[in-house]
Amino acid sequence: MRENWRENVIRSNLAVKKLLTVTELTVYLKNLLDRDPLLINLWVRGEISNCKQAASGHLYFTLKDEQCSLRAIMFRSRCTRLPFKPKNGLAVRVRGYVTVFERDGTYQLYVEEMEPDGAGALYLAFEQLKAKLQQEGLFDPRHKQKLPFLPRCIGIVTSPAGAVIQDMIKIINRRWPGLEIIFAPVAVQGETAAEEIARAIARLNQTDRVEVIITGRGGGSLEELWAFNTEIVARSIFHSRVPVISAVGHETDYTIADFAADVRAPTPSAAAELVVPVKAEVKRYLQTMQERLYRGAAEYVKQHRRRLDTILDRPLFRRPTEEICARRQQTVDFLSQRLVQAVNSAREENRNRLKVLAGRLEALSPLATLARGYSICTRPGTPGVIHNAREVGSGEEVQVKLHRGRLLCLVEESIAEEAQS
Fold first, then answer.
1. Closest by CA position to 62, among listed 8, 109, 130, 115
2. pLDDT of residue 215
3. Would the N or C end of the chain have less CB density within 10 A of its end CB?
4. Do 158 and 45 belong to one domain?
5. Where are the alpha helices (DSSP H) in 207-278?
6. How many independent structural domains does the chain possess?
7. Vertex 194, ends 190 and 196: CA angle to 5°?
8. For 38-46, what is the mean pLDDT?
9. Residue range 88-108: average pLDDT?
10. Are residues 74 and 207 in the same domain?
11. CA 412 → CA 66, 377, 400, 409, distances in Å?
12. 155 with 239, same domain?
């Protein structure tokens, strides 16, 4: 009834003066849309863009095709029933109704049901390029460079317009005042954006002062971020000799540049915080390390001083002459005792060896044979022993050696004996 009354009032105003307030016109249009049977329950096909999940759980996005776009909302109660997660670039079919959002005076689609309709053109291109570069190794962690702890000069590649560059410069100057920054202004969206970004990264690599590069922009739709999803930008980042931080869009936005970069930052502001430490914190850390070093050195000296005092308190250092002489005397006594024992042992061993050799010599000596009654017969003045009677003739002199003494004999007759066989 109330809506009918409001409509009648508006119609009467139109008939009288044709001058409406914004609210009156908005309510009139809303009533028209709400009564259109086609718009009460319809299916719409399009590609998702600018997709954002609010803290309330409602899903806000734009549904678009090649020529037009339509704002859409899906309430939390409907989102919880979805079997998949909507994201930018996804082609979908949605069912809902169209009405006017009175506060903004805009019409939008209230989605009650959603189902995938295949990947959108941009999203498909993104996935294909990602797969190609990943296969070539551009995303391999082995190629990632480490960021310098404290770079002397930072290069920034982004748009000169907007708050992104100002925010990054402000954060860097706050964290480390006076740090050198080289800014390379580029377009971050449009037909020339990708080539400008790639050339800027190459130019910064030719500057010996730059030690790290930040490239990125603020958030936006998939189309607006597309310059950072191009092959030329990905390869310029990969071939950079200087470490590159990619800071594109919001935390949930991922681009090809993020995968190719050495480090991905969720936002440009986070990249500025990541690239340089806080000077005050570094100073406090160094002061803490200095204090720990002083305490450690003092404790080290103290411990070794106590050890030195303990050593100096030993008898050797309190009475060095007496201690050293006593020890040396003890050593001499010990060595002398060992020398005497060694000499006695050697003497006893030699004596035993002499007895053995003497026994052997005595066993072989002819004197022992003579002692048993045998004698040795020789010619006087010659050492040769006479073995056979034929060697001596009658009338020759011979000498007979006995066990004690010798005999000089004259041979009367020589009697030879035949050798026994």
1. 109
2. 97
3. C
4. no
5. 231-238, 256-260, 268-275
6. 3
7. 95
8. 91
9. 89
10. no
11. 161, 15, 15, 9
12. yes
